[in-house]
Design a protein that fits this description.
Length: 259
């Protein structure tokens, strides 16, 4: 059985002081999360402080991207071992904002995925179609291309360590989430591809999160779908009570099983 996972992506928000307040409130509200794993991804500048605050507790630390090399002349970049040193366990890769704003290609994202795995980080590979692609009936073609390229060259043992996130671009930050049915359809398709690329068992073990305007009001319906193993949460992860509610609702068994 796959343990649900909820990841908060804080994007480019918050000073170190603000990040500490947010992380502290989340830590207090989720002292012993049951039936769910929780990761927060602060901006690089706050990783050390938030990492110290969360050290030894159940909430894990993640980064929002990384470079594909371990060191070198790459001004402004952050290497996987630097993230590991700060206590990071996860790293988001292929987020649509980086694909669009920074121009990250599928090939570059694949190099990052492989680098993350090589350094013991869990890559969270994000895929998703734009509104135009959905309108043109290209949803499956788009996510298939991104998934195949992102996981290229991985052994089955490596594939099972990755987390996938279906994030339709039209749903990110818009307040318009995919319906449970729309998301489940794509998740099922992605799981079928993983079965083809690795094996059926691995496809059953890999977690596929949904991301795109997830909030306390819609998370239950989404995670009720067997194919949806949790959420990647942007805007709503910046509010501690809201994020805590999302985590509790995403836990196996729902809020009733949580404290
Ligand atoms: C995201 O950035 O991954 C995301 C899903 O954002 P939001 O929840 O704000 O739509």
């Amino acid at each position: 059985m796959r343990t649900p996972l909820v990841i908060g992506n804080w994007k480019m928000h918050g000073t170190v002081a603000e990040a500490k307040v947010l992380a502290g409130a989340i830590r207090e509200g989720l002292r012993r999360p049951r039936g769910v794993q929780v990761v927060v991804c602060p901006p690089f500048t706050a990783l050390a402080a938030v990492g110290e605050l969360l050290a030894g507790g159940p909430i894990l630390l993640g980064a929002q991207t990384c470079h594909h090399e371990a060191a070198g002349p790459h001004t402004g970049e952050i290497a996987p071992p630097m993230l590991v040193e700060l206590g990071c366990r996860y790293v988001l890769l292929g987020h649509s904002e980086r694909r669009k704003e920074i121009g990250e290609s599928d090939e570059l994202i694949n190099r990052k995925v492989r680098a993350a795995l090589a350094h013991g980080l869990t890559p969270v590979l994000c895929v998703g179609e734009t509104a135009d692609e959905r309108r043109q009936g290209l949803t499956f073609t788009t996510v298939e291309g991104q998934l195949r390229a992102g996981l290229a060259g991985l052994t089955p043992d490596q594939t099972v360590k990755a987390v996938l996130a279906y994030e339709p671009v039209w749903a990110i930050g818009t307040g318009v989430n995919a319906t449970s049915g729309q998301a489940a359809e794509v998740h099922g398709y992605l799981r079928g591809l993983v079965a083809e690329l690795a094996s059926k068992d691995i496809a059953q073990a890999v977690r596929i999160l949904y991301g795109g305007s997830v909030k306390a009001e819609n998370v239950e319906g989404l995670v009720a779908e067997a194919e949806i193993d949790g959420a990647l949460v942007g805007g709503a992860s910046l509010n501690a009570p809201g994020f805590i509610t999302i985590v509790k609702k995403a836990a196996r068994g729902g809020a009733a099983s949580k404290e």
